[in-house]
Amino acid sequence: MNILHQDDAVLVVDKPAGVPVLPDGWDQDAPYLLKLLEEHFSRLWVVHRLDKGTSGVLVLARTAQAHQALNMQFERREAQKVYHAICIGAPVWDEHTARHKLRANVGHRHRTVVDHSRGKPSETHFKVLQRYQGYGLLESRPATGRTHQIRVHAYALGHPLLGDVLYSAPETALIARPALHAFSLSIIHPSTNERLSFSAPYPADFTAALAHLSDKNEGGNSYAS
User: Fold this and answer.
1) What's the rounded Cα separation, in Å, for the pair 62 and 71?
2) By three-state DSSP, how is residue 3 classified?
3) How many other β-carbons are positioned within 10 Å of the β-carbon of residue 211?
4) Which has the closest alpha carbon to 182: 59, 91, 65?
5) pTM higher than 0.70, yes or no?
6) Which residues does the annotation mark as catalytic?
7) Residue 218 — pLDDT band, cuts 50, 70, 90?
8) Rounded alpha-carbon distances, angstroms, from residue 120 to 94, 102, 109, 147
9) Do the Cβ atoms of 15 and 55 come closer than 8 Å?
10) CB burial class (10 A; 0-12, 13-18, 19+) of residue 71?
11) pLDDT in tens, 31-71
């Protein structure tokens, strides 16, 4: 586990893909992130979650007071979250904001679906960072925090994430999970009121998938350094 930052109030980690933040489904004895971290850091409070298959920056609180302060930041959209994702299909737009209303936990697979009548307001801003042959690297900035929001909004735009079979992406040998990485997070420290920013490098599977696409894409158009 890569610890990005720790002090008396907050703990920031680079969550590995494949580990749920809290107990997953019916297997209450399976390892989960909070339990693993509390073995080393004592009591922790979950501020926000990442999907089991999502890697990257995650902040946890080390006191009840810090937990309350950080929760308020997320509710007020003061915490700034940036994700990177590999999507299927190269978008024709350079930037796009998805505002499809979403309803979670639908059906036996507990999917999130677009539901403009009963769904909750949801917003994700996408920016193309790189185009490949039949794929794209996206920057995603969610303004709201609905379950599977980035994944569903990308799917609704016709660009499901690579490896995201729950949302109609075909199975692939390139990556064994949805290609979504919590790249950076900016918060206001609950004790010092200083704004802090943290970032996590791409994990090996995400890097390997991009390398494979790059090998097939010599001369692709770049939109970021």
Assistant:
1) 13
2) strand
3) 10
4) 59
5) yes
6) 51
7) low
8) 26, 5, 19, 11
9) yes
10) middle
11) 899 999 999 999 999 999 999 999 999 999 999 999 999 99
Distance (Å, whole) CA 54 – CA 183: 10
Which helix (H) or strand (E) segment holds residue 66: the answer is helix 64-75
Q: Which one-letter amino acid corresponds to residue 144? A: T
Domains and CATH numbers, the chain: 2-215 (3.30.2350.10)
Q: Cβ(148)–Cβ(154) under 8 Å?
A: no
Nearest to 13 by CA among 27, 34, 29: 34
* Element (DSSP H or E) covering residue 60: strand 55-61
Structure tokens at 100: 């499809």
Can you say whether residue 222 is alpha, beta or left, with left for phi > 0 and alpha for psi between -120 and 50 degrees?
beta
Answer for the pair 61, 10: CB distance below 8 angstroms, yes or no. Answer: yes
Sequence letter at residue 42:
S
Which residue has tokens 């939109």?
A: 223
In angstroms, the CA 113 to CA 209 distance is 27
| Tokens standing for residue 210 | 């991009």
Two structure tokens written together for 180:
């979504």
